[in-house]
Amino acid sequence: MSALSAEQLEHLQRLSGLEFLRTAFAAEDRPPFIGDLLGLEVESLEEGAVAFSVPTKATFANPLGSLHGGICATLLDSVMGCAVHSTLEAGVGYGTLELKVNYIRTVPVDGARLVGTGRTIHVGRQVATAEGSIVDASGRLVAHGTTTCMIYR
Q1: Deepest in the core among 8, 44, 73, 94, taking most CB within 10 A?
Q2: pLDDT tens digit sequence for 58-89
Q3: SS3 letters for the chain?
Q4: Of 76, 81, 78, the residue nearest 95 (C-alpha)
């Protein structure tokens, strides 16, 4: 996979945030991103609400043998940020200003999938907020969080 061409970038900048996400995730020739490393899969992409899943893997373990908290933090950052992105008009970007994560339970690294869901709370002209949650294969809450994003107009 290679970097996007100038023509591809120009096309993507004309898409709304939701259209961009749908196009980027569906593209077979897209550049690599953090989701590839995690085995991320899109569960749903709607305006203001997204859901992604990742498998737990032995390579994601902390020294105690359970899932490293950074995996949940990364999944939450992704779903909450993309929930914000899905509401933006063409040519507008965003960046995470703040991320708060609450860990609820230990997660084994047994190959089961975690599903993260992000929802916008408020999208203003310059700042947006969102909330997210992660559940395990049994539907039990394992982590939740909030974010504040800066909107780049």
Answers
A1: 94
A2: 999 999 999 999 999 999 999 999 999 999 99
A3: CCCCCHHHHHHHHCCCHHHHHHHHHHCCCCCCCHHHHHCCEEEEEECCEEEEEEECCHHHECCCCEECHHHHHHHHHHHHHHHHHCCCCCCCEEEEEEEEEEECCCCECCCCEEEEEEEEEEECCCEEEEEEEEECCCCCEEEEEEEEEEEEC
A4: 81
- Structural tokens at position 30: 């897209």
Boundaries of domain holding 95: 6-152
Residue 1 covered by a domain: no
pTM of the model: 0.93
Compute CA 90 distance to the chain's CA centroid, rounded to the nearest angstrom: 19
Task: Determine, yes or no, domain membership for 123.
Answer: yes
The count of structural domains within the chain is 1
CATH number of residue 84's parent domain: 3.10.129.10
AA identity, residue 96: T
Report d(CA 46, CA 34) in Å as an integer.
Answer: 21
